[in-house]
């Protein structure tokens, strides 16, 4: 049995650990080991898992769903252009919009099997969406220097600043947020809370409806107001998850924000949306950036 195959079985036996906020669970021992990563061996290990996943039946539906969502988002960007598209420097027509990608909260993939499979799935999705790997920015405060080197060797762009999810987008962007904390999703929605930005966004991550169903309504509206508003106007397409990988890919959906749905919200919704604060929020599942003293 291959190394990747052995991991595949382990991934299905991890209990509920993978569903927790991965970035909060980093021991000093594991970090020490990560610093001494064999970069080439780790890259090969991940690419072996990419190959393995590509032959899984459920991958084809993931691929179809993401390609469809990306196509719709790109068409929105094209329709919203105020000017003619720039000419193609090769003289082959006009340049079309291209998806970019941002991945937060991947976790310590050198020591966590689930995170390793989630990274491999990210690479498959980049190819499915025709996104150059260099156009995918990744960040997790838990990454070791060795893991950052692995990501760079793969060709991804490693961010150096903890954005707390507060990234304003101006181009069609795929966000890959596997099992991230609710505050990160909420921050991302707040930063892009407009009729111009939200339709440019595709999220692959935990179902908003699932978050809502598991929460106490009053507390959820108070702590995660942007998710609670988005639940009623986003479109979610659940992604299949075989039982053997339930802890790696469970509760995952493709989430988009069609303009026709966003228009159902009152116009006052979009006026000066306040930044989330979370002072009274219990169990805040996000690592905040260090404040300058």
From TrEMBL:
The source's domain of life comes to Eukaryota
Organism lineage string: Eukaryota, Metazoa, Chordata, Craniata, Vertebrata
Do you know which PANTHER family this protein is assigned to?
SRR1-LIKE PROTEIN
A Pfam family hit: SRR1
Provide the Gene Ontology terms for cellular component.
cytoplasm; nucleus
Native source species: Betta splendens
Gene, per the UniProt record: srrd
All residue ranges annotated as the SRR1-like domain in the record: 99-255
Q: Which residues form a coiled coil?
A: none
Q: Which InterPro entries match?
A: SRR1-like (IPR012942), SRR1L (IPR040044)
Q: What protein name applies here? A: SRR1-like protein
Signal peptide, first to last residue: none
Family stated for the protein in its record = Belongs to the SRR1 family.
